[in-house]
Specification:
Elements: H1 13-23, H2 30-55, H3 60-70, E1 77-78, H4 80-87, H5 91-103, E2 107-111, E3 119-123, H6 125-149, H7 152-172
Antiparallel strand pairs: 1-3, 2-3
Helix pairs in contact: 2-6, 3-6
């Protein structure tokens, strides 16, 4: 289970880094700082988004599946394999999530026209609406948080640098 990073007793990244500088300075590098900052930021943003996702009656994995399907062209569907590759949910975990979303009538399973052994996953109309409203609330939370901290220009500059970094890393590292 992941630690509760929203806990006020959790040490900040600055505190952890200061301890590293004092006790293991050779391990403090620009690359290490960048990777650690990105990982910590990801965790904190997910913690910030979780209440908005829960307000829609969704688990984080369910939200991930709905948004992934909504990104597809109509009729908003994928094979389970493609969905698993897009969400980083294990096949066993994905099966459970898909059953939950089917029970909520947010997705449906339909026969693949080319291969009857495959049941494609498709958003229902309710699923499309749920994905759109939940993502809108998450984006509003993220925007409100980030706008308190850095300007729109700084956000764009950071986006440009991170996209450049991500494209380079993706070109060099194959996803498992």
């Amino acid at each position: 289970m992941a630690p509760d990073i929203s806990n006020k007793n959790c040490r900040t990244l600055t505190q952890i880094r200061e301890q590293m500088v004092q006790n293991w300075p050779a391990a403090v590098t620009p690359a290490g700082d960048l990777v650690t900052c990105i990982a910590r930021l990801r965790d904190l943003l997910f913690a910030n988004d979780r209440p908005a996702i829960l307000e829609h009656g969704l688990a984080t994995a369910e939200f991930d599946v709905l948004v992934t399907l909504r990104k597809m062209a109509p009729p908003y569907e994928l094979t389970p394999t493609a969905l698993g590759n897009s969400t980083l949910i294990t096949s066993g975990g994905l099966t459970k999530v898909l059953h939950q979303l089917e029970e909520k009538q947010l997705v449906e399973r339909i026969n693949d026209p080319d291969d009857k052994r495959i049941k494609r996953v498709r958003l229902t109309k309710s699923g499309v609406n749920k994905a759109e409203t939940a993502l809108n609330d998450v984006l509003n939370n993220d925007t409100a948080l980030l706008n308190q901290l850095i300007s729109d220009d700084e956000q764009q500059e950071l986006n440009t640098l991170l996209m450049k970094l991500l494209a380079g890393v993706e070109a060099q590292i194959q996803r498992p």
